[in-house]
Design a protein that fits this description.
With about 100 residues, the chain is mainly beta. It contains 1 helix and 7 strands. A hairpin with a 2-residue loop joins strand 6 and strand 7.
């Protein structure tokens, strides 16, 4: 098994942040040294890839069905809560099929 940790910036928007990794395991959520909200995810390069969507919710805001809590972080006066869900929508799958 070959594992690495990757960093992704988190979008605070309705669509969330889409990530495609093998056996993704979030290890940290928070602000990077530049103050950008991020999630660090362990990736197993030998595992089949999965598409996951990461959502950032403010305190008191609704959480979608099927979302699992990953962690929370403080930014200024706000506390943000990060949730993930497996994303099997055609939009997400097509996004990763498109050449980059």
């Amino acid at each position: 098994m070959s594992r690495t940790v990757w960093k992704f910036e988190l979008a605070i928007e309705d669509e969330g942040t889409v990530v495609k990794l093998g056996a993704p395991k979030p290890v940290l959520v928070g602000l990077d040294p530049f103050g950008v909200q991020c999630v660090w995810i362990e990736h197993d390069t030998d595992s089949p890839v999965e598409i996951h969507r990461y959502h950032v919710h403010g305190t008191g805001h609704p959480i979608g069905d099927g979302e699992t809590h990953v962690g929370s972080f403080v930014s200024g006066q706000f506390v943000w809560h990060v949730y993930t869900e497996r994303d099997l929508t055609a939009e997400a799958v097509e996004f990763f099929r498109s050449p980059t």
